[in-house]
């Protein structure tokens, strides 16, 4: 009986200082040779994935905590920023010079987010001064030195948002307020501390759960037609968020 196996990346298929252990490569190859399905399942976005993972024979991938799902070469779910999310980011950044940090230049999802934000900012009094697409192994801090100073940073890469949030001082990172998309408890803790000023939190749990369910349905029934889903999100601002009062709301806000 064929089974589907989901693999995390960090600490499972990837070890710091080692990369992908050969034992992991052999294990995945043997799993596939035995007729089973292998799927990557990680909080990393596609732009944060080393190229070699895409050549290991995986049947599918669930990335960005469920924001992007691909199976047998077909994209079956891609979570984009909604019009309301874009408007929220705009409201945070009114009459400011804005810098954007995204995670993958070739991603259609990222391109759609940037395009939507650019169009929505027209006439708002604010402007996008620059946009950086983070490349693999790039030192984003050094890259930012090439750009003009921004009043606010809109970060669409959850990993960078955590990194900059940890380095922020007095509520700002190198003089810029931080806003972005994230879903980890660390990000929420940084919001509570005041290092991040605004956070859009997609329902990654629901996205991941439904994506796995659709993939399983396709594996079980060859002619099963996979469905897309609309999921919820929450928006938190530092001025009205308290870890003591709102943590439970964050954890269970989608129930």
- Please provide the ordered H/E string of secondary-structure elements: EHEEEEHEHEHEHEHEHEH
Mean pLDDT: 79
Radius of gyration: 19 Å
What's the helical proportion of residues?
A: 25-40%
User: What is the CA–CA distance across the termini?
Assistant: 35 Å
Question: How do the helices and strands line up, and which of them pair or pack?
Answer:
Blueprint: E1 4-7, H1 22-33, E2 37-41, E3 60-63, E4 68-71, E5 74-78, H2 83-92, E6 97-102, H3 108-121, E7 127-133, H4 140-144, E8 152-155, H5 158-167, E9 177-181, H6 185-193, E10 198-202, H7 204-220, E11 233-237, H8 243-252
Parallel strand pairs: 1-2, 2-3, 6-7, 6-8, 8-9, 9-10
Antiparallel strand pairs: 3-4, 4-5, 10-11
Describe this structure in words.
With 255 residues, this protein is α/β, with parallel strands linked by helices. 34% of the residues lie in helices and 21% in strands. The chain contains eight helices and eleven strands. The protein has helices at 22-33, 83-92, 108-121, 140-144, 158-167, 185-193, 204-220, 243-252; strands spanning 4-7, 37-41, 60-63, 68-71, 74-78, 97-102, 127-133, 152-155, 177-181, 198-202, 233-237. A six-stranded mixed β-sheet has the order 7-6-8-9-10-11, with helices on both faces. Strands 1-2-3-4-5 form a five-stranded mixed β-sheet. It starts with a strand and ends with a helix.
Defining traits:
single chain, 255 residues, alpha/beta, 6-stranded mixed beta sheet, 5-stranded mixed beta sheet, 8 helices, disordered C terminus
Structure at a glance:
This protein has 255 residues and is an alpha/beta fold. The protein is 34% helix and 21% strand.
């Amino acid at each position: 009986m064929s089974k589907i196996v989901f693999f995390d990346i960090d600490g499972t298929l990837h070890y710091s200082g080692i990369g992908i252990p050969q034992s992991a490569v052999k294990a995945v190859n043997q799993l596939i040779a035995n007729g089973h399905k292998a799927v990557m399942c990680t909080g990393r976005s596609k732009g944060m994935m080393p190229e070699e993972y895409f050549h290991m024979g995986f049947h599918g991938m669930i990335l960005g905590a469920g924001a992007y799902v691909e199976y047998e070469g077909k994209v079956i779910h891609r979570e984009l920023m909604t019009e309301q999310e874009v408007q929220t980011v705009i409201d945070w950044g009114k009459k400011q010079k804005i810098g954007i940090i995204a995670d993958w230049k070739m991603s259609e999802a990222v391109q759609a987010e940037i395009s939507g934000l650019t169009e929505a900012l027209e006439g708002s009094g604010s402007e996008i001064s620059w946009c950086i697409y983070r490349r693999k192994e790039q030192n984003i801090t050094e890259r930012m030195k090439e750009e003009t100073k921004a009043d606010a940073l809109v970060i669409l890469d959850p990993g960078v948002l955590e990194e900059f949030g940890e380095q922020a001082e007095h509520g700002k990172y190198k003089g810029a307020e931080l806003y972005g998309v994230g879903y980890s408890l660390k990000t929420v803790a940084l919001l509570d501390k005041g290092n991040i000023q605004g956070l859009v939190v997609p329902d990654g749990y629901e996205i991941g759960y439904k994506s796995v369910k659709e993939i399983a349905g396709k594996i079980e029934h060859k002619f099963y037609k996979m469905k897309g889903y609309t999921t919820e999100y929450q928006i938190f601002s530092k001025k009205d968020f308290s870890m003591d009062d709102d943590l439970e709301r964050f954890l269970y806000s989608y129930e």
